[in-house]
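Appendix B. One record, verbatim.
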Amino acid sequence: MDDLNDPRISAYKPQRRLLLPAPPGYRPKRSAAQRKQAHERQARTAARIARFHLVGFTDAGLIVVGCLVVAAVVVMVVLLASHR
């Protein structure tokens, strides 16, 4: 039986992932600058996600709010165009 508290097991995606071996051949190591860049990119992404979640937005909430903003802009353009 699966332990649902295990972080490796997702309650939302209960199917198992196939663990595939790495492809054969030489894999070049990333330089220190590339590793630092990737780490900084991940940190910026995490900070952006944290800011949105502090405001109360989830990914779906951001999509909905974005659609509402676009709809409001379209309505404003139509109203301004029909006013003349």
